[in-house]
Fold this protein.
Amino acid sequence: MSQPTAKTWDEFMEGVWRQNPVFVMVLGMCPALAVTVSAINALSMGVATTFVLICSCALVSMTRRFTPKEVRIAVYIVIIATFVTAVDYAIQAISLALYDALGAFIQLIVVNCIILGRAEAHAAKNPPLPAMINAAGMGLGFTIGLFALGSVREIFGAGALFGVPLFGEGFQPWVVMVLPPGGFFVLGCWLLLFAAIERRKQRKLVEVTENV
Amino acid sequence: MSAEVTMVPQTTPTAAMIRTLGLISAICGLIIVGAYQSTYDAVQENKRIAVERAVFKVIPSAKSIVEYWALSDGQIEKVGAGGTAQAGAIKFFAGYDEPGKLVGLAAEGAAKGYSDYVRILFAYDPSAATVTGFGVVSARETPGIGDKITVDKAFLANFPLEAKLSDDGMVLAHEIRTVKHGSKTNPWEIDAISGATITSRAVGKGINDTAQTLLPRIAPHLEKLKEKS
């Protein structure tokens, strides 16, 4: 009985780490670069995307048996758009300031390739529960990715984290970090780090096999 | 793979497709309506609070506000007191203190800034005929440069800003203008922030555009506005 749990955990970690949408697959770059000017924006965007991801994957998976393949993309888009609309209203109800900060990128979750990709590649072929777990993993991975970008950009670009000043009056903000080029710059640094870790892992693997 | 190649291409009957799409649309429609209904009150409340907060910020001594339309025929009427806004009507806010005395008026102004329209809310003191300050409603100016308009001490020192009406009461006596940093000579000019001239100019133009049409319309009704009704 331990096998399903291990597999479930594996499915979950797939999106969080090995197939991380931001750092490994480099998907969903439009919101990842545009809204990550502060940690709270990044986190909210991640949570919103995760919610849409889980709900739409669940519905896609539930309707998978009677969805003819000719109309599947239309079905996915309608489902995803529905949950994006719901999130849109929810964010307006929670905070208008946040809504203004995220701007059009909430609506643009509809065309986020991570969600469509999950629906097509996973949810359409699996029962609801595994589909939701996989989606949750992907969503968490995306949120972590956005948070990694947002926190670094806010710390350097505004000298604060979650709006709490870190360095005191004397700090001269590194403004380029909260401008679009800063997004590319920070993303590049993170990708570099991940590539380095990956290469190190592979080198170790080679060493081990050579020794054997 | 090979099984797919040899398979006779099967077409799904149209009825099945329509059925699926219809069902999905119905479910999605329900979800959207549910989300809209359940968040409607909270969203409206949030919007109202956001506007009020902005008005209270520019008229700090106000304790309550009343919204008015300044109609194009020179009349004013309360917002929501029957009928919808007419073409050319300008919305403004009257701020009152605790006993119900008028402490200031506020209205929105907008002008093209560096990257988008800079929408501001400015406060007008009718007794002194000055613009006493402003707050940003929405702007997407460059962080660290254009967004200094709300924090730059030298820029904020431009206010109060003279906004007297001309003798015939039809326009402002002097157009509110933004001038280059360090060249302000008159009380109706705004000294721009060095390095953020375009954004500073948008503030001046936004105030001027609204004030030129709104203030002459309000002027005849000031007596009526003085006490909270």
The mean pLDDT of chain A is 85. Helices of chain A lie at 2-18, 29-34, 39-62, 72-94, 96-102, 113-121, 128-158, 180-211. Chain A has one domain: 3-163+174-211. The radius of gyration of chain A is 19 Å.
